[in-house]
Amino acid sequence: MATTTKIQPRALVRASGGPRYAVALAVDALGTGLLRPFLLLYGVTVLSLSASATGIAMTVGAVMGLVCMPAVGRWLDRGARSTVVAASMLVRVLGVALLLATPAGHVWLFATAALFLGIGNQAWPAAHAALVATVAHGRERDTALAGGRALRNAGLGAGAILATACLAGGTTALQALAAVTGLAYLAAAALAWSVHVHAHPAATPAKGRDDGPAPSMRALLAANVVYAFCLNVTEIAVPLVLVTQLHTSPVWSAAIFVANTVLVVTLQVPVTVLMSRFSRRTVLALAGVVLTASYLGFLAATSLGHGWGAPAIATVAVVCTIGEIIYAGSATAFVTALAPAHVLGRALARFQLSTGFGLAASPAVITALASHGSAILWGSLAAATLISASAVATEKDQRTRLSGCCRRARAGS
């Protein structure tokens, strides 16, 4: 049975890369929060692009950003850590600079800016996880990854609030927000690079799992595509149901989103610590069960109609957020525990590919399912997530199979 990690703030900061790296994460998240929720608005308002063209450009940028992941994985496996994190931030500086330089009506330049932003956004999670995996070990690593997610959500939330307050300034304010975002990315890149974290895979003792083959993780990666949908449920599925089916005020959607952010910030680390007494595979499967229950809860809440439907959905959204927290606290940590050190970067890159694909596909899938009614939407999500949880729970580790074969071979010799 795994040991439970206690929450010690100083140790948590140290395990997360140190104070300077924590500041880099906060500044980067703040900058992202300033621009990301309003990038569509920037394209429509400042660049005079149509909403459809802007949305397509953003989607293409996010999807094409995934193409860089194999290269990022190989770079990480050569030992780079803080350099890759800083590079992911500098790429976004280029994206913001190109965004500011784009004349009105030039959709291709906007799409190129979105591509640079997409590359940085896709590369950062794997680079950050690899850095934390280098400076922290065991369950301390899990807690450090959870702490980084909580800090990032806090920065995103703060940035979004500041940006919302500035929107009254119109196009000039949006351009100023983009400029501040670029400066924030630049400052964060400098801080991240100054940490100088580098791994030396070649110097790792060639024994045990560190010299083993790369895990296939096929069931985990396939399941993760479905799991990643939960990250967009409170942003897309819930508002869609509340506004189009229950005809409620948008205030409900905003309140649920804010509650989701607050819960992630406050509970991500404690819940991850609480779950550390169980195996990561068990916790990840449990996350799928909780998410499945929440999707069925959303279905039941929707059937209550206009009067009680919105409060019921808000209540169920808390359960969904708990499932999201359990998932986020175990998934990346599970990959870092499965992968041998010399292929950690490639394993994290493959995992980010599955996450990025799930996030990119979920808006289209969710809206398509919702057009056929709540039963199809929530029933399909529940069934797919439960199947994914079962796949995670029943998949056997490659290292376990190999070690079993070796023991049988030694016994027979």
UniProtKB/TrEMBL annotation:
Entry annotated with the keyword Lipoprotein: no
Protein's membrane topology: Multi-pass membrane protein
Localization terms from the record: Cell membrane
Pfam families: MFS_1
Record's protein name: MFS transporter
GO cellular component terms, A-Z: plasma membrane
Highest taxon above the source species: Bacteria
GO molecular function: transmembrane transporter activity
